[in-house]
Amino acid sequence: MAEKRNIFLVGPMGAGKSTIGRHLADELHLEFFDSDQEIERRTGADIAWIFDLEGEDGFRKREENVIYDLTDKQGIVLATGGGSVMNKDVRNRLSARGIVVYLQTTIDKQVARTQRDKRRPLLQHGEPETVLRELAEVRNPLYEEVADYVIDTDDQSARAVANQIVSKIDLF
Ligand SMILES: Nc1ncnc2c1ncn2[C@@H]1O[C@H](COP(=O)(O)OP(=O)(O)OP(=O)(O)O)[C@@H](O)[C@H]1O
Ligand SMILES: O=C(O)C1=C[C@@H](O)[C@@H](O)[C@H](O)C1
Ligand SMILES: [Mg+2]
Predict the structure, then answer these.
(1) Which NCBIfam families match (predicted)?
(2) Which of 22, 51, 77, 112 is the most exposed place for a label (fewest CB within 10 A)?
(3) Which residue's CA lies nearest to atom 10 of ligand 2?
(4) Of 47, 114, 124, which is best to mutate to test ligand 2, by the most ligand atoms within 8 angstroms of its C-beta?
């Protein structure tokens, strides 16, 4: 039987990877995973706690392991963590195992979409706008490098973005 394709969502915090990923999986009748949630499930600790105890390096190692395991599957939508693409092995793995969709957004939208929720340790120190801008400078070229498709999420609902992805990508 032909291999069922995977869709991997990459992009910065607040791009909507987790929210859009769920809609997309529903639309396409694929299984949904979220690397951040899977790390928390396996560890039994939340991301902020992992950052506190093990530092960002410890978190990144867990993230790499989880992404390696999940990308062994077929027929999934995976929302990846915003910083996972900093690891070249992760980028190569995503490219090899599925279709990579970069969800793009502006810094203003990122600030608005992340401000109510305190789960993102990298946004707990300093001005969120400045931090997000600095991360974008380093990471945006990496999202672009790994992406098969780039989708702008700014002026449409998460469900509309999911529908746009369905109509744009060539799954088979
Ligand atoms: N297209 C959209 N329009 C309006 N709000 C959105 C859109 N996409 C996501 N949101 C909202 O923005 C917030 C952040 O979205 P989400 O958690 O899906 O981002 P993320 O890319 O998974 O971030 P992270 O990398 O931190 O996990 C959520 O409250 C979500 O409902
Ligand atoms: O952009 C990042 O580095 C992060 C994004 C989130 O998805 C989480 O993986 C964590 O908060 C770190
Ligand atoms: Mg998410």
Answers:
(1) PRK05057.1
(2) 112
(3) 120
(4) 47
